[in-house]
Amino acid sequence: MVKREIGRGKYLALALFYTTLLILGSYGVVFKAMRSDPNDTDENGNRRQYAVKRIFPTINAAFILVEMLILKLVDGESNNADLIQAYRLEGQVSLVFRYQKS
């Protein structure tokens, strides 16, 4: 359950967005990545790892936006990947997350 306040009717709005995302969510391929900067390390001195989701270019931009809004809304909640950045390169959108072992 999401605990953050998003205004009046918060759970209904979130449920509608989440249902839309489940039905119309974006598909893509996820890659495990590390930055080329050797100084990008965690608190233990290990190089940080990232998950990069490259969304297929055929996905509607509105679906991608809804996915990104929900990810930012639940940022920091348990069992959710932290969205770090999103970018578009040559017509393809990519989402960058902190890598989590499953």
Q: How is this structure best described in words?
A:
With 102 residues, this protein is of the alpha+beta class. The chain is 27% helix and 25% strand. The protein has a single domain (27-98), classed as Phosphorylase Kinase, domain 1, CATH 3.30.200. It has helices at residues 10-24, 61-73, and strands at 28-33, 50-55, 83-89, 92-98. The chain has a 4-stranded antiparallel beta sheet, with helices on one face. A hairpin with a 2-residue loop joins strand 3 and strand 4 (92-98). Helix 1 (10-24) crosses helix 2 (61-73).
Report how far apart the termini are: 21 Å
What is the H level of CATH, i.e. the homologous superfamily?
Answer: Phosphorylase Kinase, domain 1
User: Number of helix segments?
Assistant: 2
- Secondary-structure element order, N to C: HEEHEE
Strand proportion: 25-35%
Mean pLDDT: 75
Class per helix and strand makeup: alpha+beta
Give the biggest sheet. 4 strands, antiparallel
At CATH's second level, what is the architecture?
A: 2-Layer Sandwich
For this structure, the CATH topology is: Phosphorylase Kinase, domain 1
Q: Tell me how many strands there are.
A: 4
Number of domains: 1
What share of residues is helical? 25-40%
Across the major sheet, the strand order is: 1-2-4-3
In the predicted model, the low-confidence regions spanning at least 5 consecutive residues are 1-24
| Rg, Å, rounded | 15 Å
